[in-house]
Amino acid sequence: MISNKMEKALNNQIALEGYASFLYLSMASWCDVQGLDGCAQFMYRQSEEERGHMLRIFNYISEVDGHDLTPAIKQPPHQFKSIQDLFRQVYSHEQKVTKSIHELVALSLNEKDHTTYNFLQWYIEEQREEEALMRTILDKIKIIGDGPQSLYFIDKELEKINKAELAAEAKEEEA
Ligand code: FEO
User: Fold this and answer.
1) pTM above threshold 0.90
2) CB 50 within 8 A of CB 17
């Protein structure tokens, strides 16, 4: 059985992950319109991943006899100043999610809820990986530059990252 406080905090996290999924879907669509196919594919996949993060908490709350609440999702932005601006926003959102996960961990310790504490460890690792990936992308964009001709090369870099991620996923499925 989960405490009301913990249940409420996990439901807030569901909303945050759900918003990330919609924000990244909107970003994927913007990239598509700009002709940045590699970036679009990357953001579509990130959007799917965030939906997975949301559902993982849903399933958990239900497993511990709580009531998971389907969140209202506020409208994400549809326009971005540039691809650099878009990835800066992704990074910033990921930092927000990390902070929120850390607060959940602190709460689980406070509530002496070791089951939830244990469940949250997966998110700690996931956030470390996501923040590192976004920093790598921002570093590459910085090196390539932000002139109009850079877009082609930025998109090629994202295609490479997509391939590497797909290969890693296939390996995980094999294991
Ligand atoms: Fe689920 Fe990337 O935060």
Assistant:
1) yes
2) yes
Query: Which atom number of ligand 1 is nearest to the Cα of residue 54?
Result: 1
Tokens of residue 46, six digits: 């990130």
Contacts of range 169-174, beta carbons closer than 8 Å, 24 or more positions apart: none
Q: How far is the CA of 85 from the centre of ligand 1 (A)?
A: 18
- How confident is residue 174, by pLDDT bands cut at 50, 70 and 90? confident
Indicate if ligand 1 lies below 6 Å from the C-beta of 20: yes
pLDDT digits (tens, 9 = 90+) for 7-65: 999 999 999 999 999 999 999 999 999 999 999 999 999 999 999 999 999 999 999 99
75 in the Ramachandran plot: left (φ > 0), alpha (ψ -120 to 50) or beta? beta
Our answer on whether the CB atom of 24 is closer than 6 Å to any ligand 1 atom is no
